Amino acid sequence: MVEKTRHERLLFEHLLPYFKRLETCWDKDADPEYHGFDGLVHMVGGRQYPPRDSLNTSTIALGHRCSPDGMKGDPTGLTDLRQCFRATSENSAERQHSSSVFDLSKIHVICDALAARILMDASKRASGVVPIGGWRFHAKAEVVTSCGTQQTPQILMFSGIGPQGELAKHNIPPAV
Questions:
Q1: Rounded to whole angstroms, how far apart are CA atoms 151 and 167?
Q2: Which residues touch 122 (CB under 8 Å, ≥6 apart)?
Q3: Of 77, 79, 96, nearest in space to 39 by CA
Q4: Residue 63: how many CA atoms within 13 Å on its side-chain side?
Q5: SS3 101
Q6: Three-state secondary-structure class, residue 76
Q7: Domain positions in the chain
Q8: pLDDT tens digits, residue range 70-98?
Q9: pTM for the whole thing?
């Protein structure tokens, strides 16, 4: 574990009351020393996804640690993603902020469909997504890729979008 400086510890200890006051944590097993339960921002964590157990096992095998709760003052290692949702129960969640500002009636969310690559039309414009499993989803208007700082570049490169030299190393034909 990385040793925190005295300054980092003090900073966290001084900010913790504000974090707790802001949060409504929907994890019934969350530590009340680090989580709030009556704030304006509703948080859920512990999302289950297909490679989760393999990632945890690999992380430990490589000598790193898994921290199920990165909000305990030391977010180093592999930690569970915590999401800002307006949870209606511990088993479901609805969008907290987006649905109150934007009309999401035409948005369709498909869970457990990990993106493998982006489809492109003849003009090299994104036209859909191919999830792992081989289905194809075609967009009527646009494709938005928002998979984080590591997954977004990976999906783009699997799609042939990126530096030609890097794509060539992996035998991926360049598209853009």
A1: 16
A2: none
A3: 96
A4: 0
A5: helix
A6: coil
A7: 6-101, 115-169
A8: 788 777 788 877 777 665 555 554 555 55
A9: 0.46
